[in-house]
Amino acid sequence: MREAVLVDVVRLASGKGKPGGALSATHPTVLLSTVLQALVQRSDLDPALVEDVITGCVQQSGEQAMNIGRSALLGAGFPESVPATTINRQCGSSQQAVHFAAQGVMAGAYDVVIACGVESMSRVPMGASPQGQDYEGPQVHERYPDGLVHQGISAELVASRWKLDREQLDEYSARSHQRAAHAATSGFFDREVVGIQVTDANGATIAHTVDETVRPSTTAEQLAGLKPSFQTPDFSARFPEIEWSITAGNSSPLTDGASAALIMDSVVAQRLGLIPRARFVSFAVTGDDPIMMLTAPIPATQQALKRAGLGIDDIDAYEVNEAFAPVPLAWQREIGAHPERLNARGGAIALGHALGSSGTRLLATLVNHLEATGGRYGLQTMCEAAGMANATIIERL
User: Is residue 34 a contact partner of residue 196, using CB atoms and an 8 Å limit?
Assistant: First the structure.
């Protein structure tokens, strides 16, 4: 079987996903075009060699409709001969794009392929895709007569099941900001972040290169003063076990962003004179309880480790998407993972969760951390709506 390798991976610095955010005045195709251009320029790669651009995007409506991957590559100046597709596995969309890209290389369907993702949550808000329609249908309602719930309630259920109290959640969240702030001031993000020209509040054109969502001064004591975000009388009656501990402070913020990874066959990389940064070892995608929803990273990790013939102690760094603080904490407890190896440069609570972009964003942070620390194996996993998760294991080269 051919070997799929990661040649490079880049991302934009996060922008707050609301009006006035650093990237909110920028069309989402421009966000994605920027990272696509940077990816081929950094590798001095002729974009005509790219055989497909597989793009993750969750809210595929409005400015993100009609195959944003194709629009972005045309905007980036790629040859018209380069195709693209846009996929949606919810929060794990660009991680799934990586899986499809690497698996395509391993199967011989591609020599050179880009996996990427984009989400402008300021311009195409959450919920824009269904537009108030019943996207579940009568059979799902029949199977779950009490109704499925949104992710905030699922995060509360995870916290309850694993007995994670408010203090633990807030301490973890503050640590995410502190780790991300330390990584930023230490230059740890410099290799993965590419600049994008934006217009600031004064009308000046500047390069946006620093994650806007990181709050270096955040403390657990400050977070303790925030009110629960999802408590309602109806949900309180349905789930009496919930203690209502999920707040804006221990959840990932709405974010704008884009990221992209260049993946190819190892022999082709050698022929092109490119030095791969990592190889893909194993992949997993699993489903789990759609009401608990956020627990699938646990079986996905177990499956990816089994396929790789590795144990969790063999993994030097883990990136577990911080949709909500209970997700990585429950994962850590269930898997038996070392806390210092978990999201060592901060996670989505600090760096933001630009939905369709997050999978390749995690990959960028993971490979750079492995290189900086000399680690060999890295694992990333991501909870996804309706109770799914992807897991990926890479080996630094």
Answer: yes
pLDDT digits (tens, 9 = 90+) for 17-34: 999 999 999 999 999 999
**Measured distance between the N- and C-terminal CA atoms of the chain, rounded to whole angstroms:** 18
In a domain, 240, yes or no: no
Residue 144, domain member (yes or no): no
- Is the pTM higher than 0.85? The answer reads yes
Residue 13 inside a domain? The answer is: no
The CATH number linked to 291 is: 3.40.47.10
CA–CA gap between residue 377 and residue 300 (Å, rounded): 16
**Overall domain count for the chain:** 1
Given the residues 99, 177, 208, 353, select the one marked as catalytic.
353
pLDDT digits (tens, 9 = 90+) for 80-139: 999 999 999 999 999 999 999 999 999 999 999 999 999 999 999 988 888 889 999 999
Q: What is the DSSP letter of 11?
A: E
Catalytic site includes residue 369:
no
Structural domain for 367, as ranges: 280-396
> Among the options 99, 116, 208, 383, which is catalytic?
383
Which residues does 129 contact at the CB level (< 8 Å), separation at least 6?
58, 59, 60, 61
Catalytic residue among 91, 99, 116, 208: 91
Asked, for residue 118, whether it belongs to a domain, the answer is: no
Instruction: List the one residue out of 254, 298, 272, 271 whose CA is nearest residue 387.
Output: 298
C-alpha torsion sign, points 278, 282, 286, 292: negative
Percent of residues, the chain, with pLDDT higher than 70: 100
353 catalytic? Reply is yes
